[in-house]
Amino acid sequence: MGVEIRICAEALERDAVARGFGRMPAALADPGFLQYIHSRFAMANEERLHVVYCDDRQRYLHDETLTIGGENSLVLRARPLVHRALTIGAGGLILAHNHLSGNCQPSEKDIVATHRLQKLGAELELTLIDHMIFTRDRFFSMAAGGFLD
């Protein structure tokens, strides 16, 4: 019973926060937005991929956890991600995933997967706005770090 209440409370909180972002720019400089994305990983004991779908003007449309991996890895499958983005009518994506190691620097696999998805997205007019990596107390923006074209 207690677990169900906690899950419902978390869902209500996510919904309320998401409604607050509705049609607003998904501003990576907004501490509230970053805190919201970071909260998606707060209780995670495994790597997770969270996606923020934006319209063509980079305004928030929807967000969700798309993939849950293991303790040290996560598989980014482009097909379900692109399918979901096109279904929602997104024009832009912000990817966020966590590193349980405490190191928020992108791995070689992170970089390769990001470039692959960025190229694929460009062909479909789907902009990869950023790919962010979170740890318990820090984050790294691949866009700010110069990893996106």
TrEMBL record:
This is DNA repair protein RadC. Residues 27-148 form the MPN domain. PANTHER family: DNA REPAIR PROTEIN RADC, UPF0758 PROTEIN YEES-RELATED. The keyword Metal-binding applies. GO terms for molecular function: metal ion binding; metallopeptidase activity. It comes from Erythrobacter litoralis (strain HTCC2594). Keywords: Hydrolase, Metal-binding, Metalloprotease, Protease, Zinc. One of its GO terms (biological process) is proteolysis. InterPro entries: MPN (IPR037518), RadC_JAB (IPR025657), UPF0758 (IPR001405). Pfam families: RadC.
